[in-house]
Design goal:
Layout: E1 42-43, E2 49-50, E3 78-80, E4 89-91, H1 95-116, E5 118-120, H2 121-128, H3 132-144, E6 148-151, E7 154-157, H4 159-162, H5 167-171, H6 175-186, E8 194-197, H7 201-206, E9 216-220, H8 223-229, E10 235-239, E11 243-245, E12 250-252, H9 254-259, E13 265-270, E14 274-276, E15 280-283, H10 286-297, E16 299-305, E17 317-320, E18 327-331, H11 336-344, E19 348-352
Parallel strand pairs: 8-9, 8-13, 9-10, 13-16, 16-18, 18-19
Antiparallel strand pairs: 1-2, 3-4, 5-7, 6-7, 11-12, 14-15, 15-17
Helix pairs in contact: 2-3
Length: 357
């Protein structure tokens, strides 16, 4: 061109070339062979090409910047600035985050139903910013879990799952079964032991049966249990702090949980509102579930006291999985197939006859 040529056959338009055969229009290139229109490029997390200048962040958009992305925060969707083609780029949300979002959606739906009793698919779609197809799948899942009932265009609360009867009302139900279960469970408590008693009407029937034990230490978050035992000679009662849940006389909250730190018991007798192979021990109260779970965490052996009416039912909050239970004491009307499954898992099952214990 100018009477001179570079010594390299790959020389550029001015007799010169960059040191890389992938040089750009001016004999120079960016350090990345996938450079964009100016010899530079950006790319997103999945390596898709963004025809834009590249900044110091590999998720850079048209100006080398991203919006809404932080490695530590890991949002569900990160929106990248407009690219040189006028479009917008989105990073796909990770699978783990999608699962997290579904859990949060389910919690929102249930909490909304507890307050308003019913909800429409269109409302949830707008509120949760997901498609109506996704909402319907969420409702199907929650219906399978017996948390709601689907209706035309929406869902209604499965009220019997959340409306817990009062303590006095529960005392009047299945009296013979509960009495027989209490008598059997009292046989497990011997002199000198350290035991934990949770809340519940069946647990309340145990306390009169152990008042003759000597050198017994009882840990409980149930006010009625403590009141029954605190004046008994030979029994030391450890009552957690916390605020009162009137429906069960339970002490709950952070103070109750912290009071159990450092405590260890040989046997924990646990009551529950529901009991099943899939869901384990369950209760309608999240705070009560947390306290009872802490009791179980500090127990060598866990005994579930559940009459047959509680079998194959689930309240809203799981206390523990079924495999954390060592022994189940129930009445002879418990479903035979569930009893067989429990035994197959190595869980001892004691069946009592109502009115014959």
């Amino acid at each position: 061109m100018h009477g001179k040529r570079s010594h390299d056959r790959y020389a550029g338009a001015h007799g010169k070339r960059s040191h890389d055969r992938y040089a750009g229009a001016h004999g120079k290139r960016s350090h990345d062979r996938y450079a964009g229109v100016h010899g530079k490029r950006s790319h997103d997390h999945y390596g898709r090409l963004c025809m834009a200048n590249r900044g110091h962040d590999r998720y850079a958009g048209a100006h080398g910047k991203t919006r809404g992305y932080n490695r530590r925060e890991r949002p569900y969707v990160s929106e990248v600035e407009d690219n040189s083609y006028g479009g917008r780029l989105y990073m796909e949300e990770p699978q783990a985050d999608r699962r997290m979002r579904s859990v949060e959606r389910h919690q929102f739906i249930v909490q909304y139903l507890k307050q308003h009793k019913s909800v429409d698919v269109s409302f949830l779609s707008a509120e949760l910013k997901v498609s109506e197809v996704t909402v319907r799948k969420d409702l199907e899942k929650l219906e399978r879990d017996k948390l709601l009932l689907r209706s035309h265009g929406g869902a209604v609360l499965n009220e019997h799952l959340f409306l817990e009867p009062s303590f006095i009302e529960k005392e009047d139900r299945y009296k013979d079964e509960k009495s027989a279960i209490a008598k059997e469970s009292a046989k497990l408590i011997r002199d000198g032991m350290t035991v934990a008693l949770s809340t519940g009407t069946t647990i309340g029937l145990v306390t009169p049966l152990i008042q003759d034990r000597a050198s017994l230490t009882v840990v409980t978050n149930a006010m009625n249990v403590a009141a029954d035992l605190m004046r008994t000679d030979g029994i030391q009662v450890f009552l957690t702090g916390g605020h009162i849940r009137p429906n069960t006389f339970a002490l709950i909250g952070e103070a109750a949980e912290k009071a159990l730190d450092g405590v260890y018991v040989e046997v924990a007798l646990i009551g529950a509102n529901g009991f099943s192979i899939d869901q384990g021990l369950t209760t309608p109260s999240m705070e009560e579930a947390r306290v009872v779970r802490r009791i179980i965490d500090h127990a060598r052996h866990v005994v579930a006291l559940v009459d047959s009416s509680k079998f194959d039912k689930a309240a809203f909050y799981r206390i523990v999985d079924v495999d954390r239970v060592g022994t189940v004491i129930t009445d002879s009307r418990a479903p035979a197939d569930t009893v067989a499954q429990l035994k197959d898992r190595g869980i001892a099952v004691i069946l009592v006859e109502p009115g014959h214990a």
